[in-house]
């Protein structure tokens, strides 16, 4: 049993003698305030000997119908006000206690469009500036919540993409290694063909063209086999640029480019690729395969390998 109400009516407390005195404006006013509040029904306002306003418990009939009336008033607000209704016994008399927390979807209004806020123990009409401030704060909270959800979803996508990129890169590296063995074998055949050409001076020109055609076919085969590389390259670079995250994918590409060239160029054909005409054709093909690399960078790597192979022939 609660003996008495010691807190005077004010910023967060209001007394109502009867449920008929409860208005939707009272609920809206507390919901729009920063601290929320409590409304007691069955308590009469009176002043003590010091002139302070206190509440005298007179009691109120308790019934499901009265409780439903209170809840209906809260639901009629726009948006509905979240409240809890309790029954208390004070000085042997029953009363209602309505708890109204500060709302999270401010501003609230009655179904007739009245906006109120609690202040100085009274309900005051909201000013245009107060209304605008509440609207902006509500939209800010909504935006932050949506942004958090989007960020979480994006982090999940990024994590999954990282795993997939790593997996696909490993597969591609293995494919390149296997292809490199085959390319080396093909280049040895091309080298043998070039050696035979030297024995017949009259057919040198036609045989060189055949070698060039065979080489071009091999590079085109390589280009078709590596179609996954530019797709992965584009995806990962877009995501890394967007979130300003550094990655080692370019380093992996550099290693791939150098390994492909190193397996393609042999000591026996290195001198021929020193010629700018032949070098340009192969650099152009490599640029198509690795579009994120500058052509000058690819050319530099190509000529470094050619130089190394040429020197090893002596």
Summarize the structure in words.
This protein has 314 residues and is an alpha+beta fold. The protein contains 8 helices and 8 strands. The strands form 3 sheets. It has a 4-stranded mixed sheet. The protein has a two-stranded antiparallel sheet with strand order 3-4. α3 runs antiparallel to α5 (228-242), α6 crosses α8 and α7 packs across α8 (295-312). The longest helix has 71 residues, at 128-198. It is rod-shaped, with a radius of gyration of 41 Å. This is Putative DNA-binding protein. One of its GO terms (molecular function) is DNA binding. Keywords: DNA-binding.
Which structural traits does this protein have?
alpha+beta, 314 residues, single chain, four-stranded mixed sheet, two-stranded antiparallel ribbon, 8 helices
